[in-house]
Amino acid sequence: MKEVPQSPSLLPDERLDRVNEELYLIQKQNGLTFGTDAYLLAAFLRPSPNAFAVDLGSGTGIISLLALAKNKFARVTAVEIQQGFADLIARNAAVNGYAERLTPMLCDVRKLSPALLGREADVVFSNPPYMTADSGKRNLFDEKYIARHEVCGGISDFCAAAGRILKHGGKFYCVFRPDRLSELMNALQNARLAPKRMTFVHADADTEPCMLLVEAIKGGAPSVRVSKPLLLYLPKQAGERSRTRSPEAERIYRNCSFLDEPPSDGRE
User: Fold this and answer.
1) H-helix or E-strand containing 75?
2) DSSP 172-221
3) Phi and psi dihedrals of 161, rounded to 5?
4) 3-state secondary structure of 133
């Protein structure tokens, strides 16, 4: 069992949790915490062990940490607009022994460029804000409001950033809301990112999709594969207090990978 390399000092609004892949994660009480969407996006990332990857809107850095724990990439630059979270990424990288492979970068994705990164990226991934700036109730804490709402860039800005910094043939991964699918597709097209693989995620067989996972290729041919829906839970039985994960979800959580997905080289 992995041990914390050293006991980290926590601020009053922070907590330390042990999460998947034996990672230790410092999280802010007033910020977004690690959830299903982040883990599924990490699992959706195809391994490219020699790749340089960029995480747009990294938050705590959890998706980058999961990817590195599974050796999916060689190095990751985690781009974050909030100073407090950029600092948190560095601390989480150090706590888990990834300080040399995970680098935080304080930057607005709308200003991000290969020149700022020092090179083009092989892979870009993002769990961007899902809600428009004027939708829903405003969160009391700015950290959570900025993470959830498009006040520092919308989906078009995140896709545009990916399109700017990716090399030709590079891959972009994103998790987003199904009800905003048309906006996502328009944003991808405008950034010259061709969707190649899509998976709709449902709580169970009786519910509408709650999230959408997309893999796109910069400069790729127009051809997309929509996989079978991922059902997270089996139907709830009478008297059950908690839900049982589906076999597919169990496999994904066990391996941090969508194992049954065929490879994609961008030429299809």
Assistant:
1) strand 75-80
2) EEEEE-GGGHHHHHHHHHHTTEEEEEEEEEESSTTS-EEEEEEEEEET--
3) -60, -45
4) coil
What the block records as the tokens of 204 is 């169970």
Pairing of strands 23-28, 14-19: antiparallel
**What's the full length of the chain, in residues?**
268
User: Would the CA dihedral through 142, 26, 112, 131 be positive or negative?
Assistant: negative
Per-residue pLDDT tens for 138-153?
444 445 444 454 455 7
State pLDDT tens for residues 245-254.
999 999 999 9
Tell the residue number behind the tokens 């700015």, with chain if given. 142
pTM for this prediction: 0.88
Does the domain spanning 14-234+242-255 belong to CATH 3.40.50.150?
yes
For the chain, report the end-to-end CA distance as a whole number of angstroms: 42
Neighbours of 165 (CB within 10 A): 25
Give the other-Cβ count within 10 Å of 8's Cβ: 14
pLDDT at position 237: 75
Residue whose C-alpha is closest to residue 161's, from 199, 195, 193, 186: 193
Cβ atoms of residues 166 and 192 within 8 Å: no
